[in-house]
Give the backbone structure.
Amino acid sequence: MRAAAHVSRTAEHPAVRENALRLFLRVACQALFDRFPSLILGMNERDIPREYDVAFIRPASLPVAWDGKPSTTVG
């Protein structure tokens, strides 16, 4: 019983959640690029707009292109 309570508290720790999220994103991105190998950034990495938060800096958007040419069709 005591071990189960410890595991429960560990799962609520922010570091555990952050590491789980990193792992999830790594697996998701790898699957995305395996499925669509010609997917590339649609602009220079330095030109990607950023959002600034109290604790994080993240991309505001992430434009992508197929085979190096931006898609002009929607859907």
Observations:
- The two ends are 52 Å apart (CA to CA).
- The chain has a mean pLDDT of 77.
